[in-house]
Design goal:
The complex is a heterotrimer.
Chain A lengths: L2 H9 L5 H13 L6 E4 L1 H18 L9 E5 L26 H8 L3 E6 L19 E2 L2 E5 L5 H8 L5 E6 L5 H6 L3 E4 L19 E6 L2 H10 L19 H6 L9 E4 L1 H5 L3 H16 L3 E4 L8 H16 L19 H12 L2 H14 L5 H22 L4 E4 L16 H6 L5 H6 L3 E9 L2 E8 L5 H16 L1
Parallel strand pairs in A: 2-3, 2-6, 9-10, 9-11
Antiparallel strand pairs in A: 1-3, 4-5, 6-8, 7-8, 7-12, 11-13, 12-13
Helix pairs in contact in A: 2-3, 7-17, 11-13, 11-14, 13-14
Chain B lengths: L5 H10 L9 H15 L16 H4 L6 H4 E2 L9 H5 L5 E2 L2 E4 L7
Antiparallel strand pairs in B: 2-3
Chain C lengths: L2 E12 L36 E2 H13 L3 E2 L2 E2 L2 E4 L9 E4 L6 E9 L5 E13 L3 E5 L2 E5 L6 E7 L6 H18 L11 E11 L9 E6 L2 H20 L7 E6 L4 E7 L9 E2 L6 E2 L2 H8 L6 H12 L3 H8 L2 H12 L5 H19 L10 H12 L5 H14 L3 H7 L8 H14 L1 H8 L5 H12 L6 H13 L1
Parallel strand pairs in C: 13-14
Antiparallel strand pairs in C: 1-11, 1-12, 3-7, 4-17, 5-6, 5-16, 7-8, 8-11, 9-10, 12-13, 14-15
The chains are: A alpha/beta, B mainly alpha, C alpha+beta.
Chain lengths: 475, 105, 476
């Protein structure tokens, strides 16, 4: 099930929204991946029926009309439970509608359910959640990746045509890569963050997980209107891209300069490495110009990221205090401080607590200059590495992750090593650039792929390149 | 850098209104120190001439206009007390309730 | 020992915008609990702040009106602390780059000389919700949460309680003149934190300061400072040290009590708010705002002195409130006499009665036009200054115009020469003995005749004419 083809079938009345929805719901109900936290079957069927009525009289109003999708449970959905994958929001029913949910619903897409993620987006395996680990549909002994693991698993197993994820340090691109899908993190500011539960505010960005670049384009058109409720959301940048993607051609790669670092590729596991070199060959044979480039500050990105993301998280997550909503420990009646401490300690999982404490430390007086402020300065250096590379390149090619999808439980042993898995995706968030994870090949059951990074606010150019590669790789 | 003591880690946890479960202190402090010794890597980078980079949006102010950065001073309907309070763990008389006497701030 | 007193003030002024700082909920002090609250001001997950355009304008206005530098790039920061009336767990405020810095305003010191008080910074921030006790519980109402505030921090330039209140009154009047704050202290529109410290006379080393929180009247500010100064003095004189504490002023006992002792535990972890862009304020924008500024108290004082010829003291009192200044100018419109006389009447009579009645100038029962007619009646000799006071009282009580009361009470001065001659002649004829005395050289008897004429006319005889007429008759 993909968007573009579903749309054409709906348009030519070869299939109905209700049929698509039922198929997705069946897949969801029989899923072995544990992707879904809250299934919204009744609502989905009702909306599908409405969509069918509208489509039969006027045809689909857009690419997504009548198309089933899922939302990472970090997206606020009015009156539909939204947990952030956390015990602290276990029963939270939002009193308002978030931007992404509203715009997709306006586009006529059918919400199948809210899908799992690492708690508050903190993790790269989708194991950090009280709702249970999400498994990789290609091999259930492996993780789907995180933090948007539920999104990737639900698309890969066919319980949705696409899913919306969020990406703070690779959380869309990594699970897409592990599940053989396309994952797109737009330029920071392209998609409103209103109604997206915050982890690291200067890094967070919503984007789609889908089966191909054309489908990504279909989703992007629906979620890039200016939202006045997020001031960091850019005005006048509503995407119009599907037409260009339809026209995309292998020849578009000709003369395009693709920068890459051999060092990064060499650092990957062998199975990943060979797939990366193969992908480079596709570019080269299509006439693209490969250019070895160095990114001297990327090796600091994980350290900078963990200080910045956790610092922001430490204050973003202060609102979960057991007073206004969410979990409250009621054992310490009469003592406000203990109510705070018990509610938060009980309500948050271990990884979240660790990150909040690290972030609090990084911002605390006497340490802020050495940690948070220093990290922000290094962030500048990383940004400048990109600027330098883009002086001579149209896009940057890099791994998404040095390894294939991890085995379940593998990450528990050495958290620091787990953090290092985000080495290639993190710089993109630090600089706020668009990053596109593309699937390419498989090793055994497990998919492989790579990442293309574009210039700020040139998301359209990046998607066109991605589409051209897709065509080239099939040629 | 000097290793953080259990007391410092506990103090920081307290600032965040978190507690390190009993018996886990050592593991936790060890984790913190491991992460901090890793981020020590940053001190290698010469950042004398680097302005701190706080947010990509702040690097691209040319895309933003004041019109969109602020809201008009026109009243919009609020949610209503029922909606505001519907997720409150405890409420009374249309207010959030806390079982503790707190000083007015 | 003798000490220098060092006073610095932090004022929180609620802006009189229609809507809150980060959302478009209505600002209302009397709405039912939690009915002026949305997802943003209740800090629901996923919400983001968008700053109020009008509040930016207001902040720039105050910066300009207080001679402050307006920062071209002004940045919001998060101040992190946990409190149930602060649902986000942080307050959005300004730390490094506030909207205004390095301003000043001028007050009259205790000797009546002009003194300049520095304004360190003007920063934009937000108010918290309100909590109240209900037995063992606390209840939280978020209607006030997110109301835009300006925090105005003075330099520690004040040396006496009176200077502190003079500064506050000046700042208060500027805020109200600008129309950016309702200024109602009872409602908490204008709240003050007082910092006090003492140092040995002439020393440059500052002493440990204490902070008295949320004092909500000018008089209480003076009392709180007086109390703290005395307390510091006694401690220092007996060789004890001052603890850096945050205090509350208790109105009943007129004493301060300790709220908390400052410690290292206060760690607000300020950092730039990633959800907001820096406010870029162009020179053009600043000039546009400047052109909308009304005449401010200082300019008004100068103009009143120059064009009405009233002294500095009068001008300062009359401009202390915008409504009072308007009243004064309005009353001068229909008045033909000297402005100083009007100033006296307003400052001495009107303000006293308003104060006694507990009402304000804009609710004065005596309208400016009535004030003008009253003074005109004195000027033209229609009534005497003494009788005018009775007339004024009647005007104040009934709200009627001066002329009506003068007529009603038959108070019009008798300036009819013929009538006065007739009365005077009658009295002279009836008191032959006194006439003898007068003619014999006893000049004091003249007063007797004036008194008799007044008695006869219920005090309405024109005193100047009466004297002239009597002199004439008695001189024959």
């Amino acid at each position: 099930m993909n968007i573009y083809e579903s749309h054409n079938l709906l348009k030519s009345k070869k299939i109905s929204a209700t049929e698509l929805t039922k198929e997705a719901l069946t897949k969801a109900e029989t899923s072995k991946t544990n992707a879904i936290i809250t299934l919204t079957s009744d609502l989905a069927l009702r909306r599908a029926k409405e969509a069918d009525k509208e489509i039969s009289s006027k045809g689909p109003k857009g690419w997504l009309h009548g198309v089933p999708f899922t939302l990472k449970d970090l997206f606020i959905t009015k009156n539909i439970r939204t947990t952030a994958g956390s015990k602290i929001l276990f029963n939270y029913i939002p009193p308002y509608e978030g931007y992404v949910s509203r715009s997709l619903s306006d586009a006529g897409a059918i919400l199948i359910g809210k899908v799992s993620c690492d708690e508050f987006g903190m993790g790269s395996t989708n194991e950090n959640t009280p709702f249970g680990a999400v498994k990789n549909p290609h091999d259930v002994n492996h993780v789907a990746g995180g933090s948007s693991g539920g999104s990737a698993a639900s698309v890969a197993e066919g319980s949705s045509a696409f899913s919306m994820g969020t990406d703070t340090g690779g959380s869309i691109r990594l699970p897409a890569n592990f599940c053989g899908l396309v994952g797109f993190k737009p330029t920071y500011g392209r998609v409103s963050r209103y109604g997206q539960i915050a982890y690291g505010s200067s890094l967070d960005q919503a984007g789609p997980v889908a089966r191909n670049v054309l489908d990504v384009g279909c989703v992007m058109e629906a979620i890039t209107q200016k939202d006045p409720l997020d001031v960091t959301n850019v005005p006048n940048k509503t995407m119009k891209i599907v037409g260009a993607l339809e026209k995309a051609n292998v020849k578009d790669l000709k003369g395009k300069v693709i920068a890459y670092s051999r060092e990064f590729i060499e650092a990957c596991d062998n199975d990943v490495k060979s797939s990366l070199y193969d992908a480079l060959k596709v570019f080269e044979s299509s006439g693209a110009i490969l250019k070895e480039t160095s990114f001297p500050h990327f090796k600091y990105s994980v350290a900078a990221y963990y200080l910045i993301a956790t610092s922001e998280a430490s204050t973003n997550l202060a609102r979960y205090d057991g007073i206004h909503f969410g979990f409250r420990d009621k054992s310490m009646k009469g003592n406000l401080e203990q109510t705070y401490i018990r509610s938060r300690t009980e309500g948050f999982g271990e990884e979240v607590r660790k990150r909040i404490i690290l972030g609090t430390f990084s911002l605390s007086s006497g340490y802020q200059d050495q940690y948070f402020a220093k990290a922000c300065k290094v962030r500048r250096k990383i940004y400048q590495d990109f600027e330098n590379a883009f002086l001579e390149a149209d896009a940057i090619f890099s791994p998404v992750c040095a390894s294939l999808a991890f085995k379940q439980g593998e990450g528990k042993q050495d958290p620091l090593k787990m953090y290092m898995n985000d080495l290639y995706t993190i710089p993109v968030n630090l600089a706020g650039l668009p990053g596109l994870a593309l699937p390419f090949g498989k090793h055994g059951n497990l998919p492989t792929g790579f990442q293309l990074i574009g210039k700020s606010f040139q998301d359209e150019e990046l998607l066109k390149l991605g589409r051209a590669f897709e065509l080239a790789s099939k040629a | 850098m000097k290793e953080l003591s259990t007391d410092v880690v506990k103090h920081v946890a307290g600032l965040a209104r978190l507690e390190i479960p009993q018996g886990e202190e050592a593991t936790f402090v060890n984790h913190m120190n491991k992460v901090l010794s890793y981020v020590e890597l940053l001190s290698e980078v010469d950042t004398k001439d680097a302005e701190p980079f706080f947010s990509p949006a702040k690097e691209h102010l040319e895309y933003y206009t004041e019109e969109f950065a602020t809201h008009q001073d026109k009243v919009r309907p609020s949610l209503g007390a029922d909606e505001v309070l519907k997720n409150a763990p405890s409420k009374q008389q249309n207010q959030f309730a806390v079982e503790a006497v707190i000083e007015e701030n | 020992m003798n000490y220098d007193i060092v006073i610095g003030l932090e004022v929180h002024a609620q802006l009189s915008t229609n809507t809150k700082a980060w959302c478009q909920c209505e600002i209302s002090t009397n709405a039912y609990e939690n009915t002026k609250v949305c997802e943003v001001c209740s800090a629901q997950p996923g919400t983001l702040p968008v700053y109020n355009k009008q509040a930016v304008e207001y902040a720039i206005k105050l910066a300009l009106a207080t001679n402050s530098e307006v920062n071209k790039i002004s940045v919001f920061d998060r101040k992190n602390y946990f409190y149930p009336d602060l649902p986000k767990g942080y307050q959005i405020t300004q730390f490094d780059k506030p909207v205004g810095e390095k301003g000043f305003l001028e007050i009259l010191d205790d000797e009546g000389n002009v003194k300049r008080i520095g304004l360190q910074r003007i920063q934009m921030e937000e108010d918290t919700g309100k909590s109240s006790h209900q037995g063992e519980k606390s209840l939280i109402n978020l209607n006030r949460a997110g109301t835009p505030l300006l925090e105005i921090v003075s330099d520690p330039d004040m040396c006496t309680p009176k200077e502190a209140s003079a500064y506050l009154k000046k700042l208060h009047s500027i805020l109200v003149y600008l129309g950016i704050c309702h200024g109602n202290m009872q409602d908490g529109n204008f709240r003050c934190d007082v910092n006090v410290s003492l140092k040995p006379k002439g020393s440059s080393k500052l002493g440990t300061r204490t902070e008295v929180k949320n004092v909500n009247s000018f008089r209480h500010v003076e009392m709180a400072i007086e109390y703290e100064v005395q307390r510091h003095k006694e401690l220092l004189d007996s060789g004890k040290s001052i603890l850096q504490q945050t205090l509350l002023f208790e109105i009943e006992t007129r004493k301060t009590k300790v709220l908390r002792t400052k410690s290292d535990a206060d760690d607000y972890r300020y950092f730039p708010e990633p959800d907001l862009l820096p406010l870029v304020i162009t020179q053009e924008h600043i000039e546009k705002v400047r052109s909308t500024l009304p005449e401010l108290p200082d300019a008004k004082i100068k103009r009143f002195m120059d064009s009405y010829g009233i002294p500095l003291y009068d001008a300062s009192v009359l401009t202390s409130e915008k409504a009072l200044a308007n009243y004064f100018e309005e009353s001068l419109k229909g008045y033909e006499g000297e402005a100083k006389k009007m100033s006296n009447w307003i400052m001495v009579e009107l303000l006293r009665y308003l104060n006694e009645a507990g009402t304000s100038i804009d609710r004065s029962p005596v309208k400016p036009s009535s004030m003008a007619s009253l003074l005109n009646a004195i000027q033209s000799g229609k009534i005497s200054g003494k009788i005018a006071k009775d007339v004024f009282l009647k005007m104040f009580d009934t709200g009627k115009a001066a002329e009506a009361i003068i007529k009603e009470m038959g108070l019009e001065q008798i300036s009819d020469e013929k009538a006065l001659i007739e009365i005077a002649e009658r009295i002279v004829t009836a008191n032959a003995g006194q006439v003898e005395k007068y003619k014999g050289g006893n000049e004091r008897v003249f007063g007797f005749f004036v008194g008799q004429v007044m008695k006869e006319t219920n005090g309405q005889a024109n005193p100047v004419m009466t004297a002239e007429i009597l002199k004439k008759i008695l001189g024959q």
